[in-house]
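queue> pop job 88
queue> type: inverse folding (structure -> sequence)
queue> payload:
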């Protein structure tokens, strides 16, 4: 990760939103689903950027970093955060910009946020998930652990809802059937929409 950051140095406002911590509800999982989710969490492949080339990576990171600078003033941890979001989102088949919108709503980009329901970290993951699909030493305040759990859980909910993001977001927040939370995430997602500069091809 440090090597990736070093290769992308020289790069480089969001209005505050109230934290709306998630409260995923415990639902029994079949043994096969539990095993598959555990495998997704346990995979420790080295993070890589899912871009076609370094120019594309620089453009995306510069655009996202400038928008996040007020909330995360220190460049190195800010870029490490963004690279990890991008990697874990793409790994789970999610749009990285959508995940940034979800984090904006869930924790307002606060690493150690804890909701009244006990959800933790950037993506406000409920601790029961560690017992269900993780390992006893998984720390939900650890950057990559939190993002991996959060993205894996949202992917799981998308699969349950046959790709319906609105309903999957409701499940993620424990508010299935209510429009407020999905609408907030979809609105926040618009703050992170990204159009690559002319001449840069992108998978986004």
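queue> result:
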């Amino acid at each position: 990760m440090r090597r990736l950051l070093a290769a992308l140095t020289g790069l480089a406002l969001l209005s505050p939103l109230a934290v709306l911590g998630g409260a995923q509800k415990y639902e029994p999982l079949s043994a096969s689903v539990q095993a598959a989710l555990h495998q997704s969490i346990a995979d420790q492949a080295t993070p890589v950027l899912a871009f076609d080339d370094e120019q594309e990576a620089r453009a995306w990171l510069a655009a996202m970093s400038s928008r996040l600078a007020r909330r995360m003033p220190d460049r190195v941890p800010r870029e490490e955060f963004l690279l990890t979001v991008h990697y874990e989102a793409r790994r789970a088949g999610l749009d990285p910009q959508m995940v940034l919108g979800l984090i904006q709503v869930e924790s307002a980009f606060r690493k150690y946020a804890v909701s009244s329901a006990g959800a933790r970290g950037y993506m406000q993951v409920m601790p029961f998930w560690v017992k269900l699909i993780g390992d006893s030493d998984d720390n939900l305040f650890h950057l990559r652990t939190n993002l991996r759990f959060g993205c894996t859980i949202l992917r799981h909910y998308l699969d349950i809802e046959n790709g319906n993001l609105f309903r999957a977001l409701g499940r993620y927040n424990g508010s299935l059937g209510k429009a407020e939370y999905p609408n907030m995430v979809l609105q926040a997602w618009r703050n992170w929409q990204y159009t690559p500069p002319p001449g840069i091809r992108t998978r986004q």
